[in-house]
Automatic annotation (TrEMBL):
Residues 2-79 form the ATP-dependent helicase C-terminal domain. It comes from Anisakis simplex (Herring worm). The lineage of its organism: Eukaryota, Metazoa, Ecdysozoa, Nematoda, Chromadorea. GO terms for cellular component: nucleus. One of its GO terms (biological process) is nucleobase-containing compound metabolic process. This is ATP-dependent helicase C-terminal domain-containing protein.
Length: 79
């Protein structure tokens, strides 16, 4: 079973990264859950066994100027 590492606002990113690298290079491996645009996403090179698979999950923000969104908001406000 792989060790899971999570980026958080409180975690020291250097320590987290070093722990992840150390564990990822073992036969067991490791998984890192980080935030796009977070501390860990800036200038880190995920090479070789450090980045075998990348899965991105996002919640896109709607365009506030979208006609469709504005019409839906009008209906919500009027009801």
């Amino acid at each position: 079973m792989k060790t899971l590492f999570f980026e958080s606002k409180r975690a020291d990113s250097t320590t987290l990264w070093n722990d992840f690298v150390r564990k990822a290079q073992t036969p067991q491996g490791a998984m890192l859950c980080a935030v796009v645009g977070g501390k860990l996403s800036e200038g880190i090179n995920f090479s070789d066994e450090l980045g075998r698979c990348v899965i991105m999950i996002g919640l896109p923000y709607p365009n506030k100027n979208s006609v469709e969104l504005n019409e839906k908001m009008k209906v919500i406000v009027l009801n």
